[in-house]
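During the no-cost extension, the postdoctoral fellow (Dr. R.K.) reprocessed legacy sequence entries with the updated structure-token encoder. One reprocessed record is reproduced below for audit purposes.
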Amino acid sequence: MNDREPRTEPGFDQFLARLRVEPDPAPPARYGAYSSYARIFERLESLRRRGARVECIGRSTGGEPMWAVRLGESERPRLRVLYFANLHAQEFIGVEAALATLERAAERIAARDPRYDGVEVTGVPTANPDGYLQVVRDLAAGRPRFRRKNLQGVDLNRNFAEGYRSDWLPRLLPQIYNPGAGPLSEPETAALDRLFARRFDRALSFHSFGGWIFWPWATSRRPSPDDDRLRALATAMQSRQARPYRAVQLGRWSRFFRAGGAEIDHLHGRHGTLALLMEVSHGGRSVGRPSTWLDPFAWFNPLDVRGEVENVVEAALALAESPKTQGTLLEPPAAGR
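Re-encoded structure tokens follow.
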């Protein structure tokens, strides 16, 4: 997002006007304080009124605009940080965590917190808007379903180019891990890849659930050349949590699990970004709440939205507030790789 690009704020105004006249179903209160679809963008509008810049980075399979918000330094920043969420349709707690992280960063930038001198923060709170809409409509209608993919039935977090189709899960469980027709075949991942190409120093992808912080590689137990720096960032994140999550290279999480085409590998391997993934919360299924046993939304999203978000926001901001370390940042490959 450089200042030579065309301003897109009027497009966002039109988008908000559309949302404000359309029906706006929201998750029932029994699920916790999760947002309706329109409420996500009202929160972005609040950030825009405080000086943030909002840009459409592409459109989803169903034609919904994908919005990115940028905070802070815009002229030659010393550190560029990206937050994004909702690659998987059902994971609303990640959206809430991303929005809260952006809002707190905006507060500190407005207060001239010296940790943000020369720092630019970009956020994409919903990378799968069609999926979000499907889920919220299911919940409002009282018909919760397991939804992970985009409208074309593709798992967006298996559709990135780095490590595409290099694991066995898509072949064994295509109904869950369908990687799509080819790397970056989906409009959502293609839009994110164009954003990634703007070269962020650090990035965090919000998911749920499990209470983990992961870093690349996701397809191998082999450490990346930046393993020490990634581990240090994960440790900084843990140090800011009242209930610290466990942290490990994703490829070492389980001997049998691999995630080909994952966003953190793509960011790191193709764009040279120190990328991490946070599995927010331990889900919302509870032995004492029988209604959650067979409810897919409750599996992924805790009832205590505020408490879970508070446990991760400061950790997420460690990426923006920790000093930039020196080292051999993995360089993106030459064209044609």
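Residues 9-321 form a domain with the Aminopeptidase fold (CATH 3.40.630.10). Confidence is low (pLDDT under 50) at residues 1-8, 327-337. The remaining legacy entries will be reprocessed before the final report is submitted.
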